[in-house]
Write a structure and sequence with these properties.
65% of the residues lie in helices and 1% in strands. It is an all-alpha fold. The two termini are 48 Å apart.
């Protein structure tokens, strides 16, 4: 949208057209036309990008002064690295070592880092030991290093810096999540006596069930063997729980796991078995002291007690947790819930009261339990008009705005991400306000989130595309605030969002979902069309709700985790909705449901609603029968 406060919009419209024509002329080599258009552009904010394009094409030594001036003028902008990479590639190909070292800027690509260190060695610009210490760090990579690093690594190795410890550390990285094809190569670098370790690590990486073959564990290097056993069991517990449990319980005496390794395996076993609803899950969780849990095992311990109603265990556990962890809202809520369930209302009340003053899922739950008003705790961002006017005049802000107007969102985000670190806290808040005014809602939301400015509720929860959300939600009979909450959680209202799984648009519609709803395939462009996306998203929410006993909480879980998984998660016996949510096996879906419910409440408040979403949850129970299964 045009913003009259950013300048002469009619002039900018003309300049945008000239800019696109100039780009085309430059790419076609029509230099007279390009130069004429360049003169007509005047001080258009994106003109430097035309110079960038020309220097990328003719950035030879004959133009060195132009290149260096450009890099100096646009340092710490996206244009810097776009030209610097081309320039450094040219210098390295022409063996211009001194110039390369002069113009290299960290961190740079790994290849350029290697070239920089190598040239510094050749030119004797930096003490050798300092460079080799840096190479120690570069070596710690579970994936292949660029060929440009080979000469540097050879010098490093010849100087005696490639130790067995460093080789093993890299082999471990390659085995546990890196490129496993590196393992044989790294194994050949180890002494012959250690070669069997690399072979066994590789077997276990390919199939963790191979950890059961104890004939490959000789006891020659017990610490290394323990690392392989720990890694293999930590994966096998997810694939074959009973076999993994049996192996850990019957390890040979020659395998001595450290205390840290045992704690790690207890955590992994507890989480894996809990997520599979395995009867032995509680046994493994119980092996962990309160301060030995990680976030995942703590969540599953809580879920176990919430599912079974073991309130006394919860009450006894919380005071033994680290003090900081005790204060997390999730543990405060469930401690109060446990007190209430065991008839200790006097102990539950002050905890619920404190939580009810906070704006989040557990705060809203607490307020609903008390039948008291919940807190929105919002605070506007205060600024003087002159402050935001000054921000608008920054060159990088103007470039960002112009890219938005041209529909070049990737370039706009590059500029935005580079400019934010240059601003102080107050200016970053104003930048978020500016993005909100432009309708660039996702960047306004993310910027405030990074700043921790959570109370700027009106900016963090915009009523974006309001008419579409309202009309399509009402057409299918769902709460518009639910639709707003889904869009806010899925994409922060980024209409061109796309996920690695292939979902598109505000409400992150999968192509197969769109085809199911429309009875025909839709293009990615159609899925990113805002009205179409919202129409499909609201229709799908309504359908999920109808298939799940008209329960919008279950539909929310299904929108994220899939309806057939939700069917699997339904308990036979009725369970209070807050208890059920806490037991959702997928962390992503569990957090998703909590966030959407909280966002739905916020939108209901912002849009003038006078009822509580969470009050509606209080009597709700989840079961197969209630969901129509």
């Amino acid at each position: 949208m045009d913003d009259p406060l950013i300048g002469d919009t009619e002039l900018l419209r003309q300049q945008r057209e000239l800019f696109v024509k100039a780009e085309y002329a430059a790419s076609r080599g029509r230099l007279p036309e390009y130069r004429l258009l360049l003169q007509q552009l005047g001080d258009y904010p994106l003109t430097p990008y035309l110079e960038l394009k020309r220097l990328q094409q003719v950035g030879y030594l004959s133009n060195e002064e132009r290149v260096l001036n450009f890099l100096d003028n646009y340092k710490n902008t996206p244009m810097d690295w776009q030209l610097r990479q081309v320039w450094l590639t040219y210098l390295s190909r022409n063996d211009e070592k001194a110039r390369f070292v002069r113009d290299f800027q960290p961190p740079g690509s790994v290849a350029n880092q290697c070239l920089n260190y190598r040239y510094q060695l050749d030119l004797e610009l930096t003490p050798t030991d300092a460079i080799y210490r840096a190479v120690d760090h570069l070596w710690q990579n579970g994936n292949s290093l660029p060929k440009a690093c080979d000469p540097l690594l050879e010098s490093w190795q010849q100087a005696g810096h490639r130790t067995n410890e460093l080789i093993w550390a890299r082999l471990k990285l390659a085995a546990e999540g890196g490129n496993h094809t590196l393992i044989p190569y790294l194994g050949r670098l180890l002494p012959e006596s250690m070669g069997y370790l690399a072979d066994h690590y590789h077997r276990v990486r390919r199939d963790p069930a191979n950890v059961r073959h104890m004939r490959y564990v000789t006891g020659a290097f017990p610490e290394h063997e323990a690392e392989i056993i720990t890694y293999g069991l930590s994966r096998l517990i997810w694939r074959d729980p009973d076999r993994a449990v049996g192996l850990l319980q019957n390890l040979p005496a020659t395998i001595n796991l450290s205390a840290e390794q045992r704690i790690y395996l207890y955590q992994r076993f507890g989480v894996a078995l809990s997520s599979k609803n395995h009867p032995g899950a509680d046994e493994w969780l119980a092996k962990l002291a309160p301060d030995e849990h990680n976030d995942s095992s703590l969540q599953w311990q809580l879920a176990s007690w919430a599912r079974t109603g073991n309130w006394q265990a919860l009450i006894e556990f919380v005071p033994r947790m680290p003090v900081v962890t005790q204060q997390y809202s999730v543990w405060q809520y469930w401690l109060a819930r446990a007190y209430a369930e065991t008839g200790r209302e006097a102990q539950a009340l002050p905890i619920f009261q404190a939580l009810a003053r906070e704006r989040h899922y557990y705060g809203f739950l607490a307020a609903a339990r008390l039948q008291k008003p919940h807190s929105l705790a919002r605070e506007a961002i205060n600024y003087e008009p002159e402050e935001i006017a000054a921000l608008r005049e920054r060159a990088d802000i103007r470039r960002t705005y112009e890219f938005l107007q041209l529909g070049r969102y990737l370039s706009a985000r590059r500029e935005w991400n580079q400019l934010l670190p240059k601003l102080d806290g107050q200016q970053q808040q104003l930048a978020a306000v500016l993005a909100h005014q432009w309708g660039w809602y996702d960047q306004a939301i993310f910027t405030l989130g990074q700043l921790g400015e959570y109370d700027a509720v009106n900016v963090r929860f915009p009523q974006a595309y309001r008419s579409d959300h309202e009309s399509y939600a009402e057409r299918v009979g769902i709460d518009p605030n639910w639709a707003f909450a889904i869009s806010r959680r899925e994409s922060a209202f980024r209409f061109d969002a796309h996920s690695p799984a292939g979902a598109h648009g505000l409400m992150q519609i999968m192509p197969r979902t769109a085809e199911y709803l429309e009875r025909k395939p839709l293009s990615n462009q159609q899925l990113q069309h805002v009205p179409t996306n919202i129409r499909l998203g609201t229709s799908y929410l309504a359908e999920l709700r109808g298939r799940l006993g008209n329960n919008w909480v279950l539909a929310t879980a299904a929108y994220n985790g899939g309806i057939y998984r939700v069917y699997e998660w339904l308990p036979e016996d009725p369970m209070a909705v807050d208890r059920w949510i806490e037991t959702i096996p997928f962390r992503e879906t569990r957090d998703y449901v909590k966030n959407v419910l909280a966002y739905q409440q916020i939108y209901r408040d912002l849009r003038g609603g006078d009822t509580s979403v969470f009050a509606e949850l209080m009597p709700m129970e989840i079961s197969r029968a209630a969901a129509g299964r």
